[in-house]
Amino acid sequence: MTTEKQFRPYAPPANVLAVLERFRSRNLPETVNADFLQASGVPKGTVSRTMQALEFLELIDEAGAPTDKLKALVRSNEEEYRNLLEQVVRNAYREDFLRIDPSQNLQPAILNAFHRYEPASQQKRMITLFLQLCHEAGITVLDTPRQRRMQRAGPSRAMPKRPKKVKAQTADTADLAQRLLGGQHTPSGTTVFGVTDEDLLRLSEEDFKEVWAALGKITRALAQAKAKHNEGHEQS
Questions:
Q1: Residue 185 has pLDDT above 60, yes or no
Q2: Residue 11, Cβ neighbours under 10 Å: how many?
Q3: Rounded distance, CA 110 to CA 104, Å?
């Protein structure tokens, strides 16, 4: 496995955090391997990256055996867990913490610091994992990336589809829907119904689909109501 200074892990944060949760809720295996990770819900395609992340954090050794650091995390209570995880993260990324401060630096500055790591095509994912681990460990993060839920393998694990509606709990979605309906224009950037390109790119794929599905229904209902009104006006 690559453990050189030019490497930083880039596994999906949701996968790594799900495995940590399983470590703490189940008996710790003698060896952490692909079967264990897949049983924890890690998709087959990201098993190797998740193993790399656990080894980089020094939670398992090269043979997959749990280290003393991992055993301490498993035995800890909630408060101890955060403190121990912070130590794990700060130790693993000690060279990076000398150059950057997650509580002060935005992602572009962190990307500049991670520019030395390979593969270059995965640097943004390296940063996402780094910042999510910091957040999980209670380290203040100024610019926390959006956390994606883990996509579990197998049809039996598929999540049920939710009703298509604009979700009130997502501020970006609610704000976008309001501006689309109201036609308010923003001061900068290209606009579509009063929404900038930046607004649209900020939304997750799920939020984007829900907003446009809901607005399509509303727009059609308004058109139907307007047609009825005009028809009644003509008859009178």
A1: no
A2: 23
A3: 10
Give residue-wise pLDDT tens across range 203-219.
Answer: 666 666 666 677 677 77
Q: How many Cα atoms occupy the beta-carbon half-sphere of 154 within 13 Å? A: 7
Q: Is 131 exposed, middle or buried (0-12, 13-18, 19+ CB in 10 A)?
A: buried
Cα separation, 111 vs 96, in Å, equals 11
CA distance 218 to 180: 11
pLDDT digits (tens, 9 = 90+) for 33-72: 999 999 999 999 999 999 999 999 999 999 999 999 999 9
The full 3-state SS of 126-168, as one line of letters, equals HHHHHHHHHHHCCCCCCCCCCCCCCCCCCHHHCCCCCCCCCCC
* Mean pLDDT, all residues of the chain: 79
* 176, 214 Cβ separation under 8 angstroms: no
In the three-class reduction of DSSP (H, G, I as helix; E, B as strand; rest coil), residue 10 is classed as coil
> Left if phi > 0, otherwise alpha if psi is -120 to 50, otherwise beta: which for 173?
alpha
Could you tell me the pLDDT band of residue 225, with boundaries at 50, 70 and 90? Answer: confident
The amino acid present at 162, given as its one-letter code, is: R
Q: Which helix (H) or strand (E) holds 7?
A: none
Buried b (16+ CB within 10 A) or exposed e, 48-59: ebbbbbbbbbeb
The structure tokens listed for 78 are: 């909630």
CB-hemisphere CA count at 13 Å for 152?
A: 12
Give domain limits for the chain. 13-136, 161-235
Rounded Cα distance, 147 and 172, in Å:
15
